[in-house]
Every structure is written in C-alpha cells, then in structure tokens.
Amino acid sequence: MHKLATPMCDNELGREILKQLGALQLNGMVPPNGMERSLVKASMSMQKPALMEVHMRFMKQFSELERDWQLMKDPLAAKPETRPAKKKAVSLEGMRSIRLLELKVGKRYHGRVLHATLCADAFFLNLIQTMVEDEDGYAARVMIEDSLAGLTSWAKVQGRYPNGAKIAIKAPLLSELPDDSVALYVNTEDDLIVQSDFPAVSVEVNVWAKLDAAALRAEGNRLFAKQDWTGSIELYTKCIQKCLDSVRRKPTSNKHKKKGASENGTTSNGKVVDETVMLAFSNRAAAWMKSCHYERALKDAHEALTLEPHHLKSIYRKGCALHGMQQYELACKCFELALEQSPEKDIKLALQKSQTCDMQSRRGVYELSKYLVGGFEGPLPEFSDYVGPVEIRSSEGRCRRGLFVTKDVEVGELLLVSNALVVVHNGNHATGKNTSPSGRSNALLRDELLCSLSNLLLKSPKWLEQACSLADCECHGNTKVPPLELFRPNSKWTAGKEDVVLPRLKGVLLQNALDESGSCTRVLQAGRGSQFLGLWPLPSFINHSCTANAVRLHVGDALFLHASRHLEAGEEVTLAYVNTLLPKQMRHELLEKDHWEFTCSCSRCDLESNLSAPLKQVTKRFQSLWGWKEAVTPGQVECFKMAKLALRLEHLLKQKGLYLYERQLVRASFFVAYWVGYLNIDRLGTLCVKLPLPDMLIDAVTAVAPSDTMTSFFAGYWLKRLEEQGASRPVIHDAQQRAIHIYRCVYGNQTSGLLKQLLEAHEANTIL
Ligand SMILES: C[S@@+](CC[C@H](N)C(=O)[O-])C[C@H]1O[C@@H](n2cnc3c(N)ncnc32)[C@H](O)[C@@H]1O
C-alpha cells in the first residue's frame, strides 16, 4: 500500500485533504506502489522523456484522486481555482546563469540562477512537485518544500506554477534523496520565482550594461583569478560583444569589415582594431582551456592572433589548446615560435611536454619503471594516447565490432594507450579530463560518471563523436566501424554531425564503462581509492573472452593495453570483463550482474557446458563453499572440503579423458579449491599429497588468465616455497623464468631486471 508521507503543511484544510487522501488510499484509489519511486528514478538521469512519462502518469492519478475527493465533499468545489495573487519583491541582480547539467549533487550554487520553463502540471503530496526544462532541453524534477501555505489544492498549485511558465531558481541545489536518486530542491518558495513576479533577464542585462568593454574585461579577469572559469567566459564574451557592437556602429570600421572580416566581425588584415577585444579573446582562450574546452580555446587564440599575430600569450595559449586536442606536433611548433620571442620557463616546459607526448604517441615508448617500482608513489604523469598495431573491424555474431591486431604480436607488446574520457574514483584524489572524488556506491558512481560524461561531451566534438561511436545497451544498430583516426593523436579529423541524448549515453556507459575488476586488470594508482569506474574510448571496442589475450594496466587515468599471449596477425584482441578463475556458471552470473547483456559462448564455456551434469554438481558444491573465499586462513574443515572437491574434480577429468589443455581450462575454473589445498599443505597432510603438483595449477591458470593477480601471486608463492625447501638450482631457475614470463604478461615488455625486481618485491609481500 502506497503511504503518504507526513505533510509539511500546518494548514487545517491541507491536513484535511491529506487525511481524505489517506482514506482514498484505503479504498484502493492510490497511485500504484512504486509510482513515485519511478519518478525519482527517472529524475536521476535527467532523461526528459522518461521523467515526463512517469510524471504524467502520476499527475493523472493524482488529479483523479483529488477530483473524487472534491466531489465527495462538495461538487462545486471541484472547479479549478484561480491563481492566488502573490507579489514578491524579488531581485536577480548580480546573479549569473547556470545550467542543469552543470549542477553537482549536494552543492548549492549561491549567486547563480537557473532559468527554466515549467514543463508539466504541478501537483503536491507533502510538498509541491513539478518538472522544469532548462534552455538546453534537459529536464529535472523539482521539489518545493516550504510551499503549501495557502496552496491547499491541486488546482491552486497548478495556478501558482502553470505549465509553460518561465521560472528562475535562485541558489539551486541538486539534492540526494533517500533512495539514491536526485532532484532539484527548493527550500523556500522565495527561491523559485515565476516569471510574472520579476522582469526576467533584463535585471542582469542592466547590471552589465553599465560597464564599458575594459571594465567587463577587468571583471572577467577578477573572476578568472577566482578560478570561476564560466563566469569569466561570460564577461569576456560581453566585453567582446560590446567592442564588436561599437565597431559595427562606426562607419569607418565597416570598411575594415569588408576587407577581411572573420565571423566574429573582427578584421584579419593585420591591423589591430582594438587591443581590448584582442585581449578579451586571448583571456577567454585561457578560460576555455581551464575548463577543458580546447577547440573553443584554439578558436579564441586564433581570433586574438588574427588581430595581433605576435601576441606571445596567444601563441602560447594556442599551443596549449593544440596540446589538449592531442595535436602535439602543431603544439610544438607554437611553443617553438613563442620561444623565439621569449625564453620563458613555462614555455620551455610546455614544449618539452608536447615533445614527449608527440614521441609517445608515434612510437609507443613509455617510461613506466619509476611507477612500477617504488610502491607506485609520486605525482601522476601525463601520458599521450597511442594507437599501436590494432584496428577496429566488424566482429562475428552478437559482438558487432571488435579490436584486431594488424601484425603478429609478442607477449608483453604494447597495443594501445588510452586516456579516460571520464573516470570517477571511490576514494581521495582524482585528476584527468573529468574526474571526481567521491565515496559512493556503485550506482552512484555510475550516475556521477553519466553526469561528468554529459558535461564533457558539450566541450569537444571529437569526444562527442568518440562516445557516439560506442555501442549502447539497446544495440541501436551501432555497427558502424569508426575510423581509427578518431582515436589517434596528431590525426587530421573533421567533426561529423553527431548528436547524443542522455538515455543513449547511459546505455553507452552500461556497455562500456570499465572498473578495477576483471582477470586481466592491474591498477597502479598512488594515493587513490582502489574502486573506480571510467570510460576509455578505443578499449571500449574490445570484446570479452574467458581466455583473454590482453591485459589492461591502469596508470593514473591512462589505460595501457598489452598482449598477454602471442597473437597472430588478424587475431581478435580480448579482455576478461570478470574474474575468469571461476566456474562457468559464476562467470556468467558476474557478466549478468555487471549489465554486459550477453552470454559468453567461448570455447571454454562450451567445454564446461559439455561436461554438464557431473561438473554442475562440483560447481554447486564449490559455490556453497565459496562464501569464505576471501579468508586467507579459513577453518581446517572448510579447507579440507575444498581440497576434497579438487580431488573430486581431478577424478572427473580423468574419467572424461580430456586433452591437457582442456584439463587446464577446467582446473583454472576451480583454482581456489586447489589453492586452499596447497596453502594448507602442512595442515591437511596426506590429502594434499594426492593433488597434482602446484606447477600444474600454475600452468592451468596461466593458460586461462596469464595476467590475473592470482596467477602472478601463485607463481611468486611457489618460487619462494621451492627456495625454502632447498630445491635444486635448475628447478628454482625454471620456476623463476616462468614467474618472470607471467610478470611480462602483466606489466608488458619491461626489462628482465625490472621484472625480476618486481617479482622480488612481490615475494617479500607473499603470505606464507
Ligand atoms: C565494450 S563493448 C565491446 C564492443 C562491442 N562489441 C561493439 O561493437 O562496440 C561490450 C559489448 O560487446 C558485446 N560483447 C562483448 N563480448 C562479447 C562476447 N564474448 N559475446 C557476445 N557479445 C559480446 C556485448 O554486447 C557487450 O555488452
């Protein structure tokens, strides 16, 4: 039964209505359970169509409810009431605009105003609820808390907040609701101003109208110094507009305009029309840069240079914008040009950075050693993207597209490097194009990621096109193979006409966002939370396999993809989306839980399906014992049971007469059962003697997941054990070579010395 919350209203009539509504509920005349929940759920993602649909359904039911009640009480009272006259002394003076998508959950925006249109009929339960749409077409649910006094019926509420009315929300706050959803919260009615109450935008215009162009630029500089990039951009824009308006008004300026006017109305004939406008363009370029709008920064730097070709800061800013767009070669040229004018340290450093990135993106050579040893400490570096010997191609079956190698590739060879479009961390620090620190649940991480992504895509047509090229949940026919140029630094790429809607973006994230889990994932992130969720464009084309052949190594926001096996030219590159050292049924459950929306039918899954009934029983037993999997030292009884299960499996494998490779695949699925036996060899005695040698298990897990943490951990453990037992030198040498090979699968083509160092560091931490 749907339950109405306690009303916020102390009005007699309001209480009466709610009491009557309560009575109606008992007669079954209530919105179905979950209706309100669907509304808030829909509002979380600001998907206008979904939000509207639930809102309308709710509205309809609510209005029927109220009409029934009115008719019951007094048939005449059912007529809509007129809007109560309500005059307020309101002012929006000095407040700057903000858009819905710019709002962050939990942050109140003082001094900002959200201009919007009511796009649904308002209604109320314990507070007034309605929907607004901002000028970008994004919609949100609004909850007006302190608003019931004098508005005790649906008709009155609608009269006060009529559909289509323009409103302004002062100091907006996107607030989290108890069920993890978000809504725009307005604490008092005074913060929500309906248009007829105020002379809309004109107040704001008047404030700035009083200032001349130089004062507007100075005001922009002041906001820039306060790191208010959006605010400074607004003021530089007003300054530019003012200058251009005055130029247009002067008859002499029209002559300039005819000769070589750019689209902004400035001249490109080398003569400086107005220093103020040039500086405003240049400063706005800096502000765009700071908010990661690199294309816009480039355009403004270009405008400034059209007016003053030798303006040092504009040349430097143009270089920075090009660097941000991964046009490293062109960026270097700008910095070299700037250095000819002034040997400033900042310019030298910028040149060095662009040269390094240029080299990395062309040759795929990265210096990772200092992040691999030394506990991954130190500041996070910037790595450029790199597209190695890979291509995107149509893939068979349900996979649509996939990533394939274009030549034979050896173990450890770097296939690509990709920086996150967006990433959110469940921990402390975060950097990158668009990252945000938090301490949130998985669902909220996803929402935060969606919010960051939708903001980011407004900033660059290239990022937008990259996101649009990815698959979404509904398989909306996205089988087009995008050109690799879209992902390659320094490439010539021209923007298409991509557009994206939020529901599709949500689908894109569900299908492509990667986290820290999976058998072929290693994370090196100094000082960050270990949990993250992000979107890396090119790696999003890699399909899943339960015997994957590549590994992703996360260093900061960069994802390094290495081959973890030898690959032949034309072979598909695969990653394990989930932990693959588990039985088929558990792998499939994990894939399903992670919203991947496919059932893996790789040869390993097929093999396990073919072993059907007997393997099913072992799996069931394994799952029931799996509860204590994380415990390093489970009780002796559990260890005994697990080890016995491994023996039962060995018996089954013998009976079925499988090939060695097939046996390895199945053993790897029950890795934990063997592992517990080996770890407790001293406690379990004769039982463990019957288990196959640990070398066989290492081979099995290497065959399935050469880069899994467990694989390298186990190889390191066994090496240490052999040394302690005083095994012969050749035996220890072989174990060491095998462990180093496994480390190469994980960390890529590092020197043998470095891999040995890593192995020793690992051994020191091994629990024995
Ligand atoms: C990260 S995308 C991989 C690229 C995707 N195939 C494409 O065309 O863009 C993940 C989606 O690819 C599909 N996929 C990945 N691996 C698969 C597999 N082994 N079998 C079937 N579909 C798979 C699923 O639809 C999955 O949700």
UniProtKB/TrEMBL annotation:
Protein's UniProt keywords contain tRNA processing: no
InterPro entries: Gramillin-biosynth_MTr, SET_dom, SET_dom_sf, TPR-like_helical_dom_sf, TPR_rpt
Repeat (TPR) residue spans along the chain: 278-311
Keyword Zinc in record: no
Domain SET intervals: 388-578
The entry's keywords: TPR repeat
Protein name in UniProt: SET domain-containing protein
Organism: Sphagnum troendelagicum
